[in-house]
Design a protein that fits this description.
There is one protein chain. The protein is of the alpha+beta class. The chain is about 35% helix and about 30% strand. It has a 5-stranded antiparallel sheet with strand order 1-8-3-6-9, with helices on one face. Helix 2 packs antiparallel against helix 3. The N terminus is likely disordered.
């Protein structure tokens, strides 16, 4: 499945989306894709091979496959993994991937608990299948997916916490400009009152 998000052709497309409970020894590749692909392991374990390196992964970890990266992966024989994935492409890809803390040089990363990611993927699949503009739901799912991963994979923002408050306050005020917004409302949004 492929989509162009927000009427901006080439900006953001969801190219792959799914979940699978793998059979023992299930393997894929070696293969290269033209889009960025993220797998998150929910249970079990397996191996990921990319850029000449081998990584052993288990529940709570994920792996990144960049465009044109020759990669393969294999489920464990005794404890095969269950995982979910999203693949995406377009001009926004590099920035979104970096914002989530993901890099080709470190393709394995923490993802936290499975339940929130499973729910995001389930909902994105339902929206893709059920909504008239389901591709927009899938794109929203991609952003939620990257946001959830970024909670664990992205480095902490440098600088004092005041900068984070200012960034969030500015975003909130901008989103409410037409309606008007008071100091108490901004403070409530930031959890300061």
């Amino acid at each position: 499945m492929s989509l162009d998000y927000g009427g901006l052709p080439g900006q953001l497309r969801v190219d792959a989306l799914g979940m699978e409970r793998c059979a023992p020894g299930h393997r894929y590749g070696p293969a290269a894709r033209e889009y960025t692909l993220i797998h998150c392991v929910f249970s079990g374990k397996g191996e990921f091979f990319a850029d000449g390196k081998r990584y052993v992964l288990g529940a709570g970890q994920g792996f990144l496959i960049c465009p044109r990266m020759l990669a393969s992966y294999r489920a464990d024989e005794q404890d095969p993994w269950t995982y979910g994935w999203m693949g995406y492409s377009g001009a926004l890809t590099a920035g979104l991937t970096a914002r989530a803390g993901l890099r080709r040089e470190a393709p394995v990363f923490p993802v936290g608990e499975a339940a929130p990611l499973v729910e995001i993927l389930r909902r994105a699949q339902e929206e893709m299948a059920g909504l008239r503009l389901g591709e927009l739901g899938a794109a929203g799912g991609l952003l939620r997916f990257l946001g959830q991963i970024g909670q664990y994979a992205a480095p902490e923002q440098a600088g004092p916490p005041q900068e984070e408050y200012l960034r969030k306050a500015a975003w909130y005020i901008q989103s409410k400009l037409e309606e008007g917004v008071g100091v108490e409302e901004v403070a409530g949004y930031l959890g300061l009152c």
